[in-house]
């Protein structure tokens, strides 16, 4: 694995680029060549760095990185949901595969949404902005109506359709991604973003409307994610520092008031860094989450062999699935999950900074902020570094609505990643040169494009 840089003078050279010669013009050589085999350790390290930079700079890298990391996260999440939910299902006199099958169904439907968003042009995303926004607001208004909204674990943010339950607040994040990006892109085109009134209105009031509807059901975790997305949009659009700081100060004061005035939220705040159980039983979930990581060690107790899910760790398959992963897969497993989220965040940032289209930039940045903020809040809660917010780990935890909304966000990211000219050309070349297409060309009859030549008169023999 690796490569060396041509132009080092000789095959066994150090591989250091010549002075005055730009690094971009140097040719990358495969690791199977004589130049690489005869190079020293330093030259091989430099060759590896050059090869990594060359690979990461390719136009199709963000697209493939998003697709690959999401596939790995979803598959690993299904494994952990099956392992973490078996005891809960047996306690409810259900099959051990009950929650696994429900999550698998959500994954299948989520992939359908992902493909639907990924394969449409960017212009279609801008067309559906307001229908999505109005549908989400209407659904959350229904949740707030007594007798219609369903309460789960103290929060009323569900709609019950009998066969399945639906959480509209999860799709408020998708609505803010599309609506906020389209709004700021149109204002940038008209040149009005330089005025603070146009910068904040109607972006901030629209976000506050979503937040108020969510907080009517008591979902503080989703509110924190929407606030993070709002600040992400303001940062990407280049809001003045004083305006940014003032808005951040208001948000901190409001969030502090919401936490202090509700007893169970204040109790969760006091559980940060807990190391022993309170005599009154407070911080039970946070403490056993920390215990799970301690029991896992380096390589874990083995998939399915965890003990905390046997009634000690609440929500082991949803909000605290990362703690279950730490117990059964150990430090190696948890670092792998964190690495996959880091790669996904890097790819999303690459999509945002690698385009000149303002809508693509803002939508990719907002979607990446959503996934990363939710992952950080969940991981911090499981590790005892943040208060328990009750948000699932995106693409990983059990939860149909969360999976569908996260898959929709990934579909939007894939659509934006393939919208650049370089990515379009690379995808077209891959499709043209694919092995499957070549094999089909050998088997299937070719379509005749020209008329068969008419045979002339027979040549007379002499």
Automatic annotation (TrEMBL):
One Pfam family in the UniProt entry: FTSW_RODA_SPOVE
Start and end residues of each stretch annotated as Disordered: 1-22
Signal peptide: none
Pathway where it operates: Cell wall biogenesis; peptidoglycan biosynthesis
Broadest EC class assigned to this enzyme: transferase
Catalytic activity, reaction form: [GlcNAc-(1->4)-Mur2Ac(oyl-L-Ala-gamma-D-Glu-L-Lys-D-Ala-D-Ala)](n)-di-trans,octa-cis-undecaprenyl diphosphate + beta-D-GlcNAc-(1->4)-Mur2Ac(oyl-L-Ala-gamma-D-Glu-L-Lys-D-Ala-D-Ala)-di-trans,octa-cis-undecaprenyl diphosphate = [GlcNAc-(1->4)-Mur2Ac(oyl-L-Ala-gamma-D-Glu-L-Lys-D-Ala-D-Ala)](n+1)-di-trans,octa-cis-undecaprenyl diphosphate + di-trans,octa-cis-undecaprenyl diphosphate + H(+)
Topology within the bilayer: Multi-pass membrane protein
Subcellular location: Cell membrane
Source taxon at top rank: Bacteria
InterPro entries: Cell_cycle_FtsW-rel_CS, FtsW, FtsW/RodA
Predominant location: membrane
Membrane-spanning segments: 63-88, 100-120, 127-149, 241-260, 329-349, 395-417
EC number of this enzyme: 2.4.99.28
Function: Peptidoglycan polymerase that is essential for cell division.
Similarity comment text for this entry: Belongs to the SEDS family. FtsW subfamily.
Alphabetized NCBIfam families for the sequence: ftsW
Protein name: Probable peptidoglycan glycosyltransferase FtsW
Organism: Kitasatospora purpeofusca
